[in-house]
Amino acid sequence: MCSFITSEFADLLQIKKEKIPIAVSGLNSAKINVNSRVCTVVSNKSDFEMQLEFLCVPKISSMIPIDSLQIPKEHFPLNIKLANPYFYGPGKIDVLLGAEVFYQLLRFGQVEMSNSELKFQNSVFGFIATGSTSNSQSQNIQYTHCGLIYDCSDTGNDIKKFWQLESIGIKDDPSYNEVNQSLETFEKTVLQE
Question: Which domain of life, per UniProt (predicted)?
Answer without folding.
Answer: Eukaryota
